[in-house]
Amino acid sequence: MRRGDFRIRLLLAVILPSVLMACLLGLFWWNWTAHTLENALRERVEATAKQLATASELPLFSGDVQSLQGMVESIGTGDADLIAVKVADQHGTTIVNHGTADLLGGDLPRSARWSREQNGRYWRLVQPVLSAPLAIDDTATGVPPRAEPLGYVVLDVSLRRLTDMRDNMLLLGGTVIVVAILVSIALMIWLSHGVVQPLTRIIKGVETMGRGDLDTRIEGLGSPVFQPLADVINRMAEGVKLTQAELQHRIDDATKELREAKHKAEQEARMDALTGLYNRRAFLERADEELLRARRYNTPLSLVMVDLDNFKAINDKWGHAIGDQVLIAFADILKGSMREVDIVARIGGEEFVLLMTQTALEEARQAAERIRKDVMASPLQLGDAELHWTASLGVTALTGEDQSVVAALVRADWALYRAKEGGRNRVECETQNTPTPLL
Asked: CA–CA separation, 12 vs 9, rounded Å?
């Protein structure tokens, strides 16, 4: 990290919280003050309106316009926030006024009502003038007041001074924020002399160590705060340097073990766990490779399907453990009968398949017959008893039209079926609908 980048980040770390706090406080202060000023102005104007309404009750009742005009003039000239003051009769018709006042239209209220006029340029307060009860003697309750107002007092309040005060507060708040930012910047500059320079040297040293230069050391910071940190980093670099060779050796050993484990897992995934032969997946992969090779070099290729006869009966009579021994013994017979270039696999419970390279159909049939006889001549010794078992085999040759070994497996399986139907312990060849083999 460059020193300038770190300085900028430190500046932002110092300024942003200060600016945010100053803005929040300024906004709260401005809103609270503006709300307070509005309430104060409303309360003062409402008090003036009530006072004028009380004083206007008798002149309105008696029709004393001169007294009303005097009161309106006195109030209008005594309050700079009032741009118009007027008194209207009970129908809203202006009797006396001071300043420029619009006509009183709309529904006439029965209680004090505030409204904004001319798109919010000023406020208007309409205060009804109600008659107060008049006490006649000590025992009388007085004359009940009239239901309808005698008239209305209307005060139009200018918002200019209120707006000016709000603008002044906004300017003052902005000034406070700017001052706070400047103070934060000055504080950052003061801190940078003791923070940025040693941290920059520490960062550069760590970056150099990270690139592999473990001989780098961070020294001479001249700061009692950061020098202990630098010492710890130096000791860590020394420890890494001393153990790097050992760690690399361990990594190499672990990598080797991992590769061996992967290879073993791949082999186990391709092998039948009981017999040690290829499983179906591995057989199909190898068989497709041999098919491509036979096509390329124009050599014959044959396939034999083998199934142990009455294997279920062996399991039922002798148990699955003996059945497994039979499968293992049969796998050993196949391994001993086949060449290294041939492929032997167990593809099912008691089903096996043989792929004989460079072997024509007749040669494959002879090899299958030899395997059948070897099975008959190899009973399984079980103590004093012998377990005799046989196998049926189906043989076919792969043809030039076979795109994969699957079609040949179907033909060999059909030949195996015919061997089973023919009495078992037989070898059958499937040649029906079979084109010329790869020769």
From this structure: 5
Secondary structure class of 288 (helix, strand, coil): helix
Following DSSP, what letter does each residue of 157-221 receive, concatenated? EE-HHHHHHHHHHHHHHHHHHHHHHHHHHHHHHHHHHHHHHHHHHHHHHHHHHHTT-TT------
Residue 251 has pLDDT above 50, yes or no: yes
Rounded distance between C-alpha atoms, residue 165 and residue 96, angstroms: 32
Catalytic residue among 290, 350, 428, 430: 350
Under 8 Å between Cβ of 335 and 317? no
- Give the confidence band of 435 by pLDDT, cuts at 50, 70, 90: very low
CA–CA dist 136, 28 (Å, integer): 55
Q: Calculate ∠ Cα 154-158-162, nearest 5°.
A: 135
To the nearest whole number, what is the mean pLDDT of the chain?
81
* Helix residue ranges per DSSP H, 56-159: 57-62, 65-78
Q: Give the pLDDT mean for 354-382.
A: 91
State the pLDDT at residue 432: 47
Neighbours of 71 (CB within 10 A): 19
- Is 350 catalytic? The answer is yes
pLDDT of 204 reads: 77
Cα–Cα dist 335/132, whole Å = 126
The answer to whether the pTM exceeds 0.85 is no
pLDDT of residue 103: 65
